[in-house]
Each structure stands twice: as structure tokens, then as C-alpha cells.
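Honest question from a wet-lab person: if I give you the sequences of every part of a complex, can you actually get the arrangement of the whole thing, not just the pieces? Trying it with mine:
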Amino acid sequence: MRLTCPLCGERDRREFYYYGAEDYLHRPGEGASLAEWDSYLHLRDNVAGVVRDLWYHEAGCAQWLVVTRNTVTHEISGVELVAERAK
Amino acid sequence: MRYSGLKVITEGLFGNRGWTPAWRDPAPKAEYDVIIIGGGGHGLSTAYYLAKNHGITNVAVLEKGYLGGGNVGRNTTIVRANYFLPGNSEFYSHSLKLWEGLEAELNYNVMHSQRGLINLFHSDGQRDAFVRRGNAMINQGDDAILLDRDGVREHLPYLDFDNTRFPIYGGLLHPRGGTARHDAVAWGYARGADRRGVDLIQNCEVTGIDIQGGKVVGVQTTRGAIRARRVGIVVAGRSSQVAAMAGMRLPIESHVLQAFVTEGLKPVINHVVSFGMGHFYISQSDKGGLVFGGDLDFYASYAARGNLPMVEHVMEAGMTLMPMIGRAKVLRSWGGIMDMTPDGSPIIDRTHVEGLFIDCGWNYGGFKAVPASGWCMAHLMATGEPHEVARKFRLDRFATGHLLDEEGTGSQHNLH
Ligand SMILES: Cc1cc2nc3c(=O)[nH]c(=O)nc-3n(C[C@H](O)[C@H](O)[C@H](O)COP(=O)(O)OP(=O)(O)OC[C@H]3O[C@@H](n4cnc5c(N)ncnc54)[C@H](O)[C@@H]3O)c2cc1C
Ligand SMILES: [Zn+2]
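Yes, you can. This is the full assembly:
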């Protein structure tokens, strides 16, 4: 499997660290309920098909990335910078 | 038909013409008292103990493929009771005791072999952690022996003890740990359940769960609708999909774990050896193949095959630990879909739907749990109350903060 980093180009999977589902980007704010924390930390849609998840280009540009990919075929359909999304 | 040594000999004399199928192939009935979704190890053992321990025999096991085609037939068969945390400790201890009587119980040779499991350590800090774990095992009534470097050498002379990165300081020996024949466990429970009247229905995928007024009333399948007032979801790596049919979102992420086997060799490895620092473990099957594996591929996946970086990593770790295996030829590799929880421990519990139960979250350690998981799930489904040794495997423990994080790696599904 290879990921195309928007900054570094196509790279071997081993350059990246996988963190988990995109849910980790939606950290609950101050005063959030326990249910919101549970959902953020633990509960996952865990789709067999197209998902969006968080990767870190550890051995490259050190950017966090949102990768759109298929968990059944391992096909990658998009890689975006988390930093760009936030804008 | 009862199996025995005498039966094998007489059948051998008469051309093996007297063997009959080990279980029936029934068509699904319109209604059962209990439906178990999933014909893996845990689903089959649940059905067996529902019949055996609770006298509930009007039961169907619905399997989308064939019995034993999932993880129960893909694992590396390590059976052990070396857990640390209260909650896990008593459960796996109970399971190991069931293993020790399983062949007589099922009248089936599951080839349970208590050859001893050795976990290696490579630093003073790791030794302290292993001493603590060993004491927890002994307190639970199980066995653990701390080996120093020379002690390990007596058992495993072929290791590279002076590896510069991970020199071997010693190991924790769990003499009652070992392996079993995975397929035989599935087949033994299947036959035992079938003989007590359970219908094992293959090629029958559950596509929906019918709920009325907050109560489960049956399931939709590729072989039609089937009614039941008690339904158990026991589908391992597919738990999130099936639970979603009942409107649930589970604390699970599915990951691929790979394993490997070499050509058959003469006996060289007599134990199960685990090299945690290198993410590598190995044993030798009774057929002679070296069976080994490592860690997850690390990213969520439903492809029952692995990726090459982990293949390379596992081979490198194996060569680091025991260079002698370098000449063996790898025959096959494969992968299975693991139901990873954010604390690495399983779930056996009720759900928000009355009559709907779930048994999942086995991570990569669910083979050894097959007997106790079925025992406890059957207890829960029959009595409505959790079994004593599985009472901490609650579905709501993540929301309430009562996590059972054996390795202390935190709430990230792939780190356990
Ligand atoms: C490579 C590898 C090595 C492992 N090594 C070990 C080990 O050494 N020791 C250990 O203790 N554990 C080990 N495990 C883990 C262990 O195999 C699993 O935790 C355990 O087998 C899971 O439970 P099961 O047997 O019920 O799962 P499965 O056998 O996967 O059963 C689930 C069944 O549900 C069926 N199903 C899914 N969806 C549906 C549906 N909609 N309708 C009907 N049926 C459905 C599937 O077809 C499947 O047959 C390993 C796993 C792997 C992959
Ligand atoms: Zn990059």
C-alpha cells in the first residue's frame, strides 16, 4: 500500500503512522458529556467500505493527513492535509 | 456416533465405510427459542453450552459461510491463562480449566497440547513487570515460573541470547500454556451441539435484526426470516456491521492480523515462545510446520489478507531471535479480521434491545477464550444474568471508565 502525501508525493506505507478513524479530529469541548467523550474515544462506525482516517507522515513532512480509503480493497481515493482542512 | 480408539481400528479394518457425517445439514425452521449469529468458535461453544448446561436445545446457529471458516480456523492456536487484571484473570483461568477437560467433554480430539509458553524479557524493568504478572497468575491459582537467562537456555538453547538490541535476560514460563488444533475445536463443539439438537445452518447470512417495541423478535437472513425472542451476536470481526442492524455503534475497530507457516520439519521448537519486544511468537505444529506471527497490520481493514511490510517485519524479528529458522521455507500466509476494542478486552453483555445479547471484542486472543466465552454467553442468554467470571466484560465499561486495559496502552484500538 502506498499513500500520496500532498506535500511529499507517493510514499511507502511504512513512512506513515496510523492513528484511527477521523473521529479523533472531533475532540469534545469543555463541559462535554460523558457520552460525547465515549463516542470520541471509543465508538466507531467501523465501516467495511470507504472510510476516512487519520495518518501521520512520520518519516516525511510530519503532517497529519486525512486519508479516504476502502477497508475491503485497500484502494486509496484521497489524501488531504489536516492543516488545510482546519482553515 | 461415539468416537473411540477401538472405533478407529475397526473402521480401519473394514475400509472406513462406517463413518457418518459429524453433524446434520438442516433447513432453517420458522422459529427457534434462541438464535446465535455466527458459527465461529464462540458461536458454536455458546450453542453447545446452552444445550448442555441449560437444557435449551431449540437453538439455531446461523453462519454466513461455512463452520470454522472465520478466525477460529485462522489463528495460531495459543491457549494460555497468563492475564493480569481482575476481570480477565479469572475468566481465562476458567477457560484453561475447561480446555483441560475438553476432549473428554466433547468426545473429540482437539489436540490440546500443554507444552509450556515462555514469554521472554530483555531488561530489568521488563523483568519486574513479569514477576508481577507471574504473581498475579499464581494468586489466580494458575502456574508461572520465572526463568533467568540460564533457565531459558535450558529450554530454548537455539535462541540468540546476546542480540545487541534485545539481549535475553530471562523468561516467564507458563507450563500449562500451549496449543490446540483450531479446526478441531470448531468441529468438536459443532458436533456436540448438533448431537444435542442444535440446528447448524450454513450459507445463511443475517441481513437484518427485527425489533418490535424494544424487544428482539427475529432476524432476516439470505434464507428467509427466522423468529426468536433471544438472539446472540457472535460474529468477531464483523461485529460492527451486525450490531448496526440493531442501531448500535460499538467500541470496535476491525484490523487484519497475519500468520505464517513453514514446510514440515522435524521437531525443533518444543514450546510456544513469545518475543514481545520484537512482535514475534512461534510454535511448531504436530505436523511439523513452524507456525508464527506478529502484530496487526496497524490500519483498519476488512481484507482477509495482509500487507507486505508486516511480513518483512515478522520475518526479521524471527531471524533476530532464532537465526536457525532462516533455512525453513514459508508455505503459506493468511490474515483474519480482528475485532479490536479500545482496551484490548472483550464484551459479553446484554444490549439496549431486550433479548439481544452480544459477545465480541476478542482482539487477537479469542481462541483460548472459546470454551469460557461460550460458557458465559450461554449463562447470560439462559439466565439473563452475567456469569461470575465474565461480569466485568460489560458493554458500558467504556462510557463509565471501567476499562480493562491489560497492556496500559490507552484508548486506541490498534494498540492492544
Ligand atoms: C492470524 C491470527 C492469529 C491468532 N492467534 C490467536 C492465538 O494464538 N490465540 C488466541 O487465543 N487467539 C488467536 N487469534 C484470535 C482468535 O482467532 C479470535 O479471537 C476468535 O477466533 C474469534 O472468535 P470466533 O472464533 O467466534 O470468530 P470467527 O471464527 O471469525 O467467527 C465469526 C463467524 O461469524 C460469521 N458471520 C459474520 N457475519 C455474519 C452474518 N451477518 N451472518 C451470519 N454469520 C456471520 C463469520 O462468517 C464467522 O464464521 C488469532 C487470530 C488470527 C486471525
Ligand atoms: Zn508528507
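Two things worth pointing out. Residues B 37-43, 62-65, 69-72, 74-78, 205-206, 234-238, 242, 257-259, 293, 336, 362, 364-368 surround flavin-adenine dinucleotide (ligand 1) (CB under 6 Å). The domain at 2-84 of chain A is CATH 3.30.2270.10 (Folate-binding fold).
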